[in-house]
Amino acid sequence: MGDSRIIIPVFFGIILLTSFSASQSAFAHGTVDQSCEKVTGANSSIGFGEPQGQTFVPTADNIVGVDFLISSARDEGDVILTIRDGINGSILGTDTQIVPSKFSGSIWIHFDFDSIPLTPGNTYVLQLNEPDFATTSIGGTNFLVDFTQQGCTGDRFFRGAVLTCCDLIYRTYSVSLNSPPEIEKTLVEGPEQIGIYLPDPTTYTFEISYMGPATQILDTVPAEFDIVSLTPSAGIATSATTSQGNDNSAERIVWDVPAGTNTLLVEIQTIPSQGGGHKDSDGNPVTVHKPTSCGELALNDGATAFEVNDDGTLRLVEVINPDTGEVTLEPVVIVGPSNSIEVEAVDGAKLCVEIEDEDDEEVEIEVD
Asked: Residue 332: which domain range?
């Protein structure tokens, strides 16, 4: 029906029949536990129906993520999802996601949670909220959630009243906490061979993938590189140098990760060499970038996942040195270290620069 809409009053609210776009997949982690995906194109204003949401009865003992199929008839804004132990029950978790400005059809919006314990067979509630809902323009400037009357497990509720006729279009995700955790790194972009003394920086992107319980992952990028960006699928990733004041400072990655299957994209770039005496073939000073010697070059150490306390801090245990009796506090490893990604630093044949060594003798090196 394109962008046309038929508005029909029903159940204290409205139904909007709109186009649906299934091309955009959910940004999810874990395994789908409960869902209703019988898409019919019907949707309803989130704000007008508050408190509005969906009940579900899990078979899993935890929940780590939720998807809802949402459309937009307004500018960009927040949608809040609250997981409750019953419609008016206690709050178990809350997540806020930004829904884009007006777009065609409906898209999956994914909400992330740390692993929330559930009791299989009990009834729980997924409650949606549009905090800046425009009450004066019902259906015209709102976010809309898709629903169906074809029957799924659970029930929709609208303005606090259960509607056994309908279900929202949704998915819940869980993780098997008994599955062995996994951690792995892969090279996404960048050359497998890198020239030494290059005039321009070389950029690499690699991915750390992790499946398991909530954790803190540590990794180190060697001193030849700067971290350009960290893009986690969930959680918070930060970096800091391991020493100060020179170009021999490695950078430590710290990634606080919720339970489930998640990824971290890391973009790094070679740094300028701080040594002096770099000249081109005409004797002019030039800036060159690391590496400055041939051989294997690691893009990072192996990433390691550690146990965390309820407040997200590393869990430390006492370790006794059997030889000295000394007691130290050490983090507990969940899994790792992972594989390390390595490339090869080589001489090239495109650019010729002259490097003055410590004895002021000029050495001609050919590089890419």
From this structure: 182-367
